[in-house]
């Protein structure tokens, strides 16, 4: 089982390195379906896994000036309080009720993530003419962050693909690298706060599992990053979106 966890971290880390997204969206379903991990434990453990494994990526992107910190702060103003309040809400409901709604919520989030990946290029092209500015855009960014904070804390899905999609829609002038770097810089504190909430309030973090996943994830992310120049990004995005679509259908129905 330990070898299985390490291999899972390696595979998912490779996907994250290749595409920049898909960590939570792939990891949590794999833990639930492949290893029979309790959904609550899979979500809590994956949140801390995401926070730790993505930290190195933030350092690299910051070093290359690929992080728009002003946007990160606006998203965090909404997402971090939302993550705290969502964790508090979960601590006051029964685990049975949470697990009951978690399967459906995760299916919806996986389907939404898949559709976002499929449609992102078309959305970016069609929305470039409608550029929000000033206070209105700041308020929408904060509200979007709050929505993302709730959804990620509930399911551990969405910090990657949905985060990038929101940034691309609200700030289409950013380059793709800056969108990814900004999303990573926001995803780390969001998943950290949500993961700590799961650990402290729900006790839903398996540290043995977490260590195994991280052992595999670190070389996986490095290997995936090296392979990005050899595999067409459009092909990767469509393969990942198709996989998420199938997983979403499995959980939702």
Model description:
The chain is mostly helical and 253 residues long. The protein contains eleven helices and no strands. The chain has helices at 2-19, 23-35, 39-53, 55-63, 69-91, 95-127, 134-155, 161-170, 176-202, 207-227, 233-252. Helix 1 (2-19) packs antiparallel against helix 2 (23-35) and helix 2 runs antiparallel to helix 3. The chain is globular.
Please, what is the average pLDDT?
A: 85
Largest sheet: none
Please report the distance between the alpha carbons of the first and last residues.
28 Å
Q: Which consecutive residue ranges, at least 5 long each, have pLDDT under 50?
A: none
| Helix share, percent | over 70%
Strand content: under 5%
Per DSSP, the total helix count is 11
Order of helices and strands: HHHHHHHHHHH
Structural class category: mainly alpha
Shape: globular
Radius of gyration: 17 Å
- The tally of strands reads 0
Give structural attributes:
253 residues, mainly alpha, 11 helices, globular
Please give a quick description of this structure.
The chain is mainly alpha-helical and 253 residues long. It is 83% helix and 0% strand. The longest helix is centred in the middle third of the chain and has 33 residues, at 95-127.
